Amino acid sequence: MPIAESVKLHPEAVVFHPDLVNLYGCTIGARSRVGTFVEIQPDVEIGADCKIQSHSFICSGVTIEDEVFVGHGVMFTNDLHPAATNEDGSLQSAADWEMRPTRVCRRASIGSGATILPVTIGEGALVAAGAVVTRDVPPYAIVAGVPAKVVGSTRATKGDSE
C-alpha cells in the first residue's frame, strides 16, 4: 500500500500516481502536490501549497513549511554520521544514532538533485540544483556548490533593476 493509513493527507492535497509513491506517517497540507516515485517517511510535516517533484526522498525529522518547492531527485538526510555497524561490529539499531531535524522555511526553493543535511533553510531562500547543503541557509540567500555557499540573494537590492 503506497499511501499508508497513517498519512494525514489534506483533502485538497494531490498525490500524482498514488500507486507509485511511498508515504507513511507523514502530514501533507492543503493544495500541496506530490510527484511520482516520492518517498516521505514518518514524522515529516509538509505545509500547504508545496510542490514536491518526482524521485525525491524526505526522511523522518523534516519539516517543510508553506509554499516550498522541492525539485526532482532532492535527498534529505537526518543523520550526520551514518553507519551500518557500531565500533564493536554489532549492527546499528535506532538507539545507536541521533535523528537530527531539518526545517525548510516558507517560500524556499530547492533545485533538482540537491542533498540537504540536517539544517534550516531560511524563508525565501534558493538552493541551486545539485548543491550539497551542510550548513544553515540564511533567509533569502541563494546557495550553490559542494558544499553549498552563499552566492547571492533572492531579494533585489536598490539599483539592481536600474
TrEMBL record:
One MF annotation (Gene Ontology) recorded for this entry: transferase activity
InterPro entries tied to this protein: Hexapep, Trans_hexapeptide_repeat, Trimer_LpxA-like_sf
Keyword Transferase tagged: yes
Pfam families: Hexapep (PF00132), Hexapep_2 (PF14602)
Keywords: Transferase
Keyword Repeat: no
Top-level taxonomic group: Bacteria
Protein family (similarity comment): Belongs to the transferase hexapeptide repeat family.
Annotated protein name in UniProt: N-acetyltransferase
The organism of origin for this protein: Sphingomonas parva
